[in-house]
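batch_manifest entry 22 of 60
target: 4-hydroxymandelate oxidase
source organism: Streptomyces spectabilis
requested by: lab member K.T.
priority: normal
notes from requester: please return tokens only, no post-processing; we will run our own comparison against the previous entry in this batch. if the run fails, retry once and flag.
--- input ---
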Amino acid sequence: MRDADDEAADASHGTRDAYDLDDMERVAAAVLPRDVWDFVAGGSGRERTLAADREAFDRLYVTARVLRDVSARTTDTTLLGRPARLPVAVAPVAYQRLLHPEGELAAARAAAAAGAPFTVATLSSVPVEEVTAVGGTVWFQLYWLREPGLTLDLARRAQDAGCAALMLTVDVPWMGRRARDARNGFALPGHVRAAHLDAGARSAAHGAPVRGSAVAAHTAAAFSAGLTWSDVAELRSLTRLPLILKGVLAPADAARAVELGVDAVVVSNHGGRQLDGALPGVVALPDVAGAVAAAGGGCEVLLDGGVRGGVDVLKALALGADGVLVGRPPLWGLAAAGEAGVRRVLDLLAAELADALGLAGCPGVGAARELDVTRLP
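--- output ---
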């Protein structure tokens, strides 16, 4: 019988043979249990928005510029006032010890080595203090909990732990209906827990329900559906950290965020995991970026959802993004080979972005924002 060491060795070898993120996805799918893979890969409803996120990217084409000196290229940029070696941050994803024993710790070490911000989730399986101890730039993602005081306590805890920004997710009053998880009766194994919630709040995610997903039942009990702009204003007034709103698709919402002093918005449909039929983020991006600029700027625009390579990052920059978040690809790397797998994912993105910049006639990230992008039918 094969043991875990054998499987890990095979997975590590698979990452060496991964020449793009599609290769890494195949490695992860081969090593993960089916219910865990479905939890990572799945979307809500009939998964129309999940598919549309990729289809929208695939319909975008860049008008490359020529006769520009691209003999020296750089992917260096700044995100929320801090230097980053590429315009990419690792998105918040819950329960990463489902995929590897070290979970968020391995992913955070890889992000720090790659010079990319790492976002710790409210539902992280590792406490924020342990993740910030890894080093690098760490952001903290907040869900608005039924007890607002607990949310604000988490914000203070993240600030005290050394996080560089707070990211409030605003598109999850409750978890979208995810059929794969419901069919699987998905529940967390005993060794995986929400490290930032107390034992009572965590327990529902572990007990298999009679029907459906235990994780969905858990989040419905823990999250508040009453989050409003007044709560955003309160959080803004209580923290000195840069504040990011994740889950913005409407230009009017982006403009309101600027008015409240938000430092960045993430154009996102939650990776196709909330409203099935929601607009793909890359389609919403130009109008959101325009609304932010018209509202006075001073607020960065990030894109989340569907990014699967360096050319996708180039397209997002050209459409008005300051950077992107990647969620599923680092998880593929984590499942395949832990820290080394996540680092391989980020190295692939960096290499592909440098290549795409040069072939498009851009010596750096700033020049990519001057490119024209055409959407084909």
